[in-house]
Design brief:
Strand content: 15-25%
Structural class: alpha/beta
Number of strands: 12
Shape: globular
Number of helices: 13
Helix content: 40-55%
Length: 340
């Protein structure tokens, strides 16, 4: 059985086990034992394009996000601003069931769809913004190509470009589609201009028989504009650091200071402020050497993608979270918050 099928087979059993644990008092016991631990929820963007659903842990449905936030607002869990939570964690003074909401990358749907929900429910949240695609207005290439390859109805095509000889692209199964997306991304990223990259992306969409509308013009794979970042901050959304080029830390530790400086500069230009003191590792890629770099840059905390809650005394540069997603059942969401 493949890993994916095995995971699907386990899902109903996992939900049943969690439901039994909740009914038998397991959630309540775990919650009492972990009351002074910091819970951190993680999101990316929302899927706002009709039809094909893409990116289970990357884009969730707007109604699911609203339902989660409404449940959280009406629950016992106290949602704190990130800076306040980090202060309290360091001082050992967290209130019971303290929770932080984080959002990665800075997708445009964060501004257009998530922020109004958070405002309506009066929930504070932090968004970690990677800024190259904020400055250079284009769909995020690797993510858009993953979507195009996974959605394509064709089994393959030949890609002809002035940048390389004709290439046979095979789309026989999920794995071949992932490989194709990675290869095409690398080749397009080598092109010398943004206009040339966008032209090739549109050509790939044509060859794959995937229309570019409405997702291109509606910004499904775009990040926020500088103006939207400034407006979001003015409306109370906490804007923080995520590197300029979404650079994974382990393989690029030497470039981290420059990545932070470029990230800060782009956000300062958008927001007119230099109050950026928190960081999220791109792809959750953690390196122990990074803590010293972050500390020297005046950064007070850093988030992983590893699942877990954070006890008093937790390393502020390796904080764990729960990445919510479209396939995450309510029982698993509540189990994390309970400390199970």
């Amino acid at each position: 059985m493949s890993g994916r099928l095995f995971a699907l087979a386990k899902a109903p059993l996992k939900r049943a086990v969690l439901e039994i644990a909740k009914m038998s008092g397991g959630f309540a016991l775990a919650r009492r034992r972990s009351a002074r631990h910091l819970r951190v929820l993680a999101y990316h963007g929302l899927w706002i394009t009709p039809g094909f659903q893409f990116g289970n842990r990357l884009f969730i449905d707007p109604e699911q996000f609203r339902r989660r936030m409404t449940w959280l607002r009406n629950s016992r869990y106290r949602v704190l601003p990130l800076d306040e939570a980090i202060d309290a964690l360091a001082a050992g003074s967290l209130p019971d069931y303290a929770t932080v909401i984080t959002i990665d990358d800075g997708w445009r749907s964060t501004y257009t769809h998530m922020l109004p929900i958070l405002e309506e429910l009066q929930l504070p949240a932090t968004v970690y913004v990677t800024t190259w695609y904020v400055v250079h207005r284009s769909p995020v290439l690797n993510v858009a190509l993953q979507y195009v390859m996974q959605r394509s109805p064709v089994s393959g095509f030949t890609w002809t470009s002035s940048a390389h000889p004709p290439l046979a692209i095979h789309l026989n199964d999920h794995e071949s589609r992932e490989r194709a997306a990675s290869m095409i991304t690398r080749l397009i990223e080598d092109l010398p201009s943004l206009d040339a990259r966008q032209a090739e992306l549109r050509e790939i969409c044509r060859l794959a028989n995937i229309p570019t509308e409405p997702w291109w013009s509606e910004g499904q794979f775009h990040l926020m504009t500088p103006e939207e970042i400034a407006a979001a901050r003015a409306r109370g959304l906490d804007i923080q650091l995520h590197t300029h080029r979404h650079t994974e830390v382990t393989a690029n530790i030497a470039t981290l200071p420059d990545e932070l400086a470029d990230n800060q500069q782009a956000l300062m230009a958008a927001c007119g402020s230099d109050e950026f003191r928190h960081f999220c590792y791109p792809c959750g890629d953690y390196d122990k050497q990074a803590a010293a770099v972050l500390c020297r840059a005046g950064i007070r905390s850093a988030m992983l993608c590893d699942q877990g809650i954070n006890p008093p005394g937790a390393d502020p540069y390796a904080l764990r979270r729960f990445l919510d997603g479209r396939c995450v059942p309510d029982q698993e969401f509540e189990a994390y918050l309970s400390g199970v």
